[in-house]
Protein 1
Amino acid sequence: MNPALLDEALRTIDFPTNSNVLVDASHADDAGIIQIDKEFALVQTTDFFTPIVDDPYIYGQIAAANALSDIYAMGAEPISALNIICFPDTVLDSEAFKLILQGGAEKAKEAGIVILGGHSVSDKELKYGLAVTGKIHPEKIKLNHNLKSGDYLILTKPIGTGILTTALKNGILNEDDISSAIKSMLTLNDKPSKLLHKYPVSACTDVTGYGILGHLWEMLEGSEVGVTISVNEIPFFDNAIPFAKKGTQIPGGTLSNERFIHKHLDMGKVDLWYQALLFDPQTSGGLLISIPSEFATDFLNDLAEYPLPVSIIGEVHDRDNQISLV
Ligand code: CO
Ligand code: CO
């Protein structure tokens, strides 16, 4: 939803808390974390959304991969999940219902977690996702902030799923046309997440609804550092670029994402059409990782067999608290 509205509500409501809470919503982190004992903290998150592809089985898988991603972004290990489904049972048949849940179950299996149950509601508009629980050692938590000057920024998936799924919804493209984006959305962030503990990573988040620059701003907000992003180093889905240039098939969220952070953005000499990609709301996007520069190449080499492009897209400096594009 609109990031400004959410931000305002989260700042004004007095949510109950206690001294065992290690991570809450105050820094827009990917998941909440509560300490259970010295060695064990519980990680919780939920995410669900309306269909972005026509195939119910693929939709179920993407929704589950997307919900699991916030656990991986904290460097945590998922252990269990609950299904959440709002289903138009007067419009769609039971086969679609089963295929969506089957898709979610497949991704849960791949992630090595169990599904303990869930909740279903009859609703005009279909929505599906998971509430996921994970675990982590309290000292190993990876927050989305505290970037260090000199760090490099690594992105583990291409950008452009918002434009491509909008073009699909509008009948401009079909599912075959966007197969590379579907493959990316189906890919779990588990492998890059494991590497967060091999190197002294400063911060990590996953790229979802606020687009790459929106989530990057969450990493920077209120800090002493800024970042320079090389747009040429960001992997974009090839077939999303012509739409960005023409300004067509742009999802509604792009503009509110742009409004939310435009004050903190210096576009430099970068063409304005890039904004359509840089603010494009992502589904099941990659991890965005801030890592001391001397470890960045090793991190990339460890993902040499990874099925998606992993790139160094920018660096952290202490000049100003803003995002500069080159
Ligand atoms: Co997230
Ligand atoms: Co989320």
Note: The CA atoms of residues 35 and 41 lie 4 Å apart.
Protein 2
Amino acid sequence: MDIFIDSADIEDIKKAMEYGVCSGCTTNPSLIKKAIDKLKARGENINMEDYIKMICETLGEGRPISLEVISLDADSMIKEAETLYNKFNSIANNVVIKIPVNTATSEDGNHYEGLKAIKALSEKGIPINATLIFTPEQALLAAKARAKYVSPFAGRVDDFIRTNAGIKFEKPDYFSAEGRKEGGRILEDNGIVSGVDLVARIVDTFANYDLEAKIIAASMRNARQVREVAELGVDIATVPFYVIEQMLKHPKTFEGIVKFSKDVVPEYRNLFS
Ligand code: E4P
């Protein structure tokens, strides 16, 4: 499983690259806002174009960086995708365009704009990451429209199930892959019992039909959830920096370091002087 960093914060991206664990990056307008707000709070002036160029360069060739469009109709999304691709892909040949699988904002909206844009851009050879996926059916349609990646939002499924059941939670709180029973019945969203369950169903569906799109487990909330999607054999997990840090930690590791450091005898230490 590849690990991407789910962030537009150049400092986090640089750190993840230095640690050697990161083989790509995903952004969205909210992540860009968070990164830019942080810089503005420090009084720094940002040139958006230079900032994104820096991210592309930091990742480098062979490590995809997903940049999202902002319009909701196919024609405008196609234009924006081409703008992003033309501006930034020449830096390190690593730009992927994020298109929502469906840009409707309610039942009454036009539900096909996302798929239309995915198909048109894929045919032009622009790699697409189909985003905001909450059902295996959406993933299947995005893959059939030739998206290169599909991004099921695992954490937001858990949020949705918990919120609908009136459960209080903090964003990084673990939610069991097997789901949760309340009042004798398992909580679910149309048969999906957790975010990890959503990813599992997509992994199984794609295996049934040898679909080529890679699956990116997105909206990861904690290390245990990353472990669970890795156990499914998902292609990629995109994780925020705090989750990468969490993946490294265990009290017995800390304790072991303290003990090993204390037990070093001078004879052994001298080897290094
Ligand atoms: C993925 O590509 C998205 O940027 C991201 O994972 C969304 O995560 P969130 O639900 O924590 O905002």
Note: The mean pLDDT is 97.
